[in-house]
Structures are given as structure tokens and as C-alpha cells.
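Entry 14. Structure prediction run on the chain below.
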Amino acid sequence: MATTADFKNGLYLNYNGKPCQIVWFQHVKPGKGPAFVKTKLRNLENGRILENTFTAGAKIDTINVERRPYQFLYKDEDGFNFMHEETYEQIHLDTDLVDNADLMKEGQHVEMMFLADEERCLTCELPTYVELEVTYTEPAVKGDTASTNAQKEITLETGAIIMAPLFINIGEKIRVNTTDRSYGERVK
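Output returned:
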């Protein structure tokens, strides 16, 4: 058990029976009335941000969350299969636990967040940037733009479709930001 005096960004706690992480907090001492702590909590199961106010000194239940390195092996009809990089233990995850799964290729290194007490996987996170090859795109035509940052749709080796600048061609490797699915740069 902990109290609101132990709050810090990144602290994991059990809020209304759900695992959450403190994203932001502020201790407020008004001139009149008791002190309180305003917080923004990220629900680790679905990623939603919740706002809550705790009274100062309130007891909270902290939880133990571990980050573990895994490697993506393959996808089947039931979901995704991963292997722990140190123990070689294999696990299976449903498709709803993996964000931006269409940007993940076989052999990709990912990081999973586990609720340590229950050995339950909460999320599977790709690295911020992944390098993928362009498998299909329409050729750009000179004079086809009305602005300087014109973009076109491209298909990547994993089947994902993103927007990229007009100069990108089939067979090039590009770096893609997995947080917002945006084009980063060409890779040599």
C-alpha cells in the first residue's frame, strides 16, 4: 500500500480494479478546504486516459508491472505467436492486444508489459520506428503536385498502407513511426 505522497510519473496502481499508470499529477493545496491530488491515469488494458482527483493522504494499491523483451515469430488464425528473447518461452496473444500489428514483420523485436502477480500480458509495443520495404506504390508524375508536401499511398511488405512523399518508389526501404503510422525517412 502507498499514499498520494508516493505519487510520481510512471507509478503503476490499481484504480477501480484496473491496472493504470500515472501519466501526470499535481498536488493542490487550496486556501480553504483539504489538499488533493489531481491525476491523469492511463488504463493499461485499453490505453484510455482517465482523470481522477484523490484526497491528500489517500491510500492506493500499487501493482508490479514488468517489461519483457519478445520476438514476433508468426501469425496464425488465432492471433500472434511470440518468443521470449532470454528464456525462449513461447506465448500466444490475441490480435486485440497488439497495436499496429500490420507494421510488424516476422523476427521483429517487441516489448510486452506483464502484470507480474497474475502473469497476464497487458500490452505489446513495437519499437518507435520500424524499417520496412515498399512493395507497391503508384509512380509519381512530374508536375502532379500543387503543394510542396504532397503525399501518396504506399503498401509495405507487411501489407500495411501508409502515406509517404511522392519520391518513394517500389523496392525502397523506409523508416515508419509506429506511434502515428507516419513516414520517417529512407533507409540506405
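The chain has a mean pLDDT of 91.
Filed with the rest of this week's runs.
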